[in-house]
Amino acid sequence: MQFNKQIIQLTNEGLGIRSTARVLGIAPSTVIRKILAIADGIVPPRISNGLERIQVDEVHTFIQNKDREIYIIYSWDQELKRALSLAVGTRSKVNLRSVVNPLLSAEVVSINTDKYSGYKGVVPKKLHTTFKRRNNGIERQNLNLRIHLKRLNRRTICFSKSKEMLEAVLKIYFWCKSSKKTV
């Protein structure tokens, strides 16, 4: 409990597992266990009905090495400046649906995406827009992710070693700020 707030803060600042362990004076395995435990306790925010300007995009990265690519797919509310839903995995319709379906349940007004063909059949035509300028918010957030989380930098030797760890760090980054009451 005593390290959780610090681990959240250091993770949001972009420190890796070993750096966090050195700063806090604890073992890297303890940091990993605590990050996974903190992430398990995070509940994604409730999506309000009737939201407008929802954007969905994906970020390409790797697990362990450049041979194992993976995608971070998430929805972004431009007005509230927060992530609404998240999936980590392949760029498949199953993962796209896991991000889009909570939005559809909340009866959002519109969902803007890039022109990736996978969104056809996942996002209903009456809600789907593909205007490039309407995705500026999520594209900026993609840049923030790459800047703040070293494991997502384009030219780096720091990759997540597992999908679960990447997902845990993203949950902490998106939904657990150190200024709020934490686990």
Can you describe this structure?
One of its GO terms (molecular function) is DNA binding. Pfam families: DDE_Tnp_IS1. Belongs to the transposase 27 family. One of its GO terms (biological process) is DNA transposition. Absolutely required for transposition of IS1. Helix content is 38%, strand content 19%. The protein is an alpha/beta fold. The chain has a domain at 54-161: Nucleotidyltransferase, domain 5 (2-Layer Sandwich), CATH 3.30.420. The chain has a 5-stranded mixed β-sheet with strand order 3-2-1-4-5, sandwiched between helices. β1 and β2 form a beta hairpin. α2 crosses α3 (28-40). The protein starts with a helix and ends in an 8-residue tail after the last helix.
Q: Spans with pLDDT under 50 lasting ≥5 residues?
A: 178-183
**What does the main sheet amount to?**
5 strands, mixed
Radius of gyration: 17 Å
Overall average residue pLDDT: 87
Separation of the first and last Cα atoms: 7 Å
- Looking at how many chains there are and whether they match, the oligomeric state comes to single chain
Helical proportion? 25-40%
Determine the strand fraction and express it as a percent band. Answer: 15-25%
**H/I helix tally:** 6
* Principal-axis shape: globular
Strand count:
5
Q: Which CATH C-level class of the domain at 54-161 is it?
A: Alpha Beta
Strand order of the largest sheet: 3-2-1-4-5
CATH architecture of the domain at 54-161: 2-Layer Sandwich
Category from helices, strands and their pairing: alpha/beta
Spell the H/E element sequence.
HHHEEEHEEHH
CATH topology of the domain at 54-161: Nucleotidyltransferase, domain 5
Function: Absolutely required for transposition of IS1.
Family: Belongs to the transposase 27 family.
Keywords: DNA recombination, Transposition
Pfam family, one: DDE_Tnp_IS1
